[in-house]
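batch_manifest entry 22 of 60
target: RING-type E3 ubiquitin transferase
source organism: Populus deltoides
requested by: lab member K.T.
priority: normal
notes from requester: please return C-alpha cells only, no post-processing; we will run our own comparison against the previous entry in this batch. if the run fails, retry once and flag.
--- input ---
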Amino acid sequence: MESEAVMSSFHAVYEKLNQALDDLPYDELGISVEVKEQVELTRMQLKRAKKRSDTQDIELAMDMMVVFSKKDDRNADSAILERLAIKLELHAIPDLKAEEIAVRKLVKERGVQNAESIQQINDLLGKFKQIAGVDETIVLDGPFSSKSLQRCRSLLIPHEFLCPITLEIMVDPVIVATGQTYERESIQKWLNSKHRTCPKTGQTLGHLSLASNFALRNLIQEWCEKNNYELPKKDACLGSDGISAELKEEISSLVQNLSSCEFEVRREAIKKIRMLAKENPDNRILIANYGGIPPLVQLLSYQDPNIQEHTVTALLNLSIDETNKKLVAREGAIPAIVEILQHGTNEARENSAAALFSLSMLDENKVLIGASNGIRPLVHLLQNGTIRGKKDAATALFNLSLNQTNKSRAIKAGIIPALLHLLEEKNLGMIDEALSIFLLLASHPEGRNEIGKLSFIKTLVEIIRNGTPKNKECALSVLLQLGLHNSSIILAALQYGVYEHLVELTKSGTNRAQRKANSILQHMSKYGHIP
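--- output ---
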C-alpha cells in the first residue's frame, strides 16, 4: 500500500551514498586499484538505480487495483480475492484475527496519518473474512470515516505488458517458439548467452526465431496514450542483440590492442578489458566472441608484474561466464596462473587463487589444476597470505578438494597444519572455512590419519561448546565423519566432555546441529559409549 514511500526512502539513501562516494581521495587513503574499481562500479549502480523506477510484484499490484476499484466489474470476483488472500497469507481465520489486531494498533499509532491506506486495508480485511466464511464487519477505532477519504490514484502497468525477464514495460514485444512474449532486447541477450530454453517455462526452444507481437504492441500503445504514460525510448544505436555498436567497436579495438607493440597501449587495453569484464555478463561474452581470451592468456607470461596482475584479474572476471571457463582452460591458462600464484605480487597471487577457484567450478578443470601443481602454492598462500589471500586460497582449496586425488595432494602439501592454525587464530574469522575443508579431508583415509589427533579432537569439542551456531554445525559434521570410521575418536571426544554439549544441542541447536548431534549420540549408543 505504501511501496512508493518506501521506494522514495531508498532513493534518498542512494543519493546520499552517491554524494559520499563522489571525489574520494583514493591516493591519500592508499586504496588499491581493485577497491577503487569496486567503488566506481558501486557509483555506476547507484546512478542507474536513481534513474530506474523499480517494478513491484505486478500480479499482486494488479489484483489490489482491481479489488479497490469502485467501477471495475471484476471487483466482486472471488477468484481475485482468494488469490490475494493466499499471496498475502491472510486466508486462515487465525491470520485474519492477528492482522485485525495489528491494524487496530496501527490506527492508534498513526491517528489520521495515512488514513486512506488504513481504510482500504480495513475494507480488504472485511472481504477476506467473507470468503473465509466469517460474516462480520471490522470496525476500527479511528478519527476518520470512509466518506471523508478520497481515493488516491496510482498508475499500475498491467502485468501482461511487462517483460518476464526485466519486469519492465515492453517496447518491442516478440514471441518465442513456446508462445511466450518477451522484450526483444532481453530475450536476445538471453539467447546470446547460449541459453536454449524459454526463461518463463523452462522448455527447450524448438527454434530461435523471434516473431513480433504486433497485437500486444498495439494494446500497450493504446494503454500508454489512455493513461498518459511515456514509453521508454529505445537507443537507436543498439543492435538487434541489445548491444550498442559503439561498445562492440570499443571491445574489438581493445582486443586488437592486446597485441600492440607499444607497452602502454597493451597495458591500458588489459586494464579496460578487466573493468569491462567485471561490469556485466554481456561484456564477458562479447570480449570472448571478439577473441580476447587467447591474447590475454599469452600475456600471463609477460615479464612485468603489473601486466601479469591486470591480466590474471581480467581472466578471473571473464571466467565468471560458464563457457569462458572452458575457453580459458583450453587456451592453456592454468599453468601460467599457477606460476603467478607462486611468484606474482600479493594482489596478483590473491587474484590467481580466485581465478583458480572460478575455473575449478568445472570438474575437468579441478583435475587440470591439480595436475599443474596448483595445490601446493594455494596451501602456501593459506599459510602466509593476507586475510584476503587466505580466504581466496581456502575457497579454491575447498573446491579442488572435492576431487579425491586432489585431497591426497593437499594433505601432502601440508594443508592440515595450515587449517589447524586457522582454527587457533580466531580473529581471522575463518573457522567455518577450515572446518568445511576438514570435513572433505575426513572422507579420505590419509586425511583421517592426519586429522584424528587428540589435540584436534580437543579443539573440535571446544568449538562445539563455545562456537557460533554455524561453527558448531561444522564441528559436529567433522566429528561425526571421523567417529564413523574410528570409534576411538568418539571416546576421546567424551573424555573432553562433549556429551553434555551434544545433549544440549539436540534441544537448542539449529536444525542441522540437532540432526548431527543426534547422529553422534546414536553412534555412541551403538558402541556402548554413552556415559
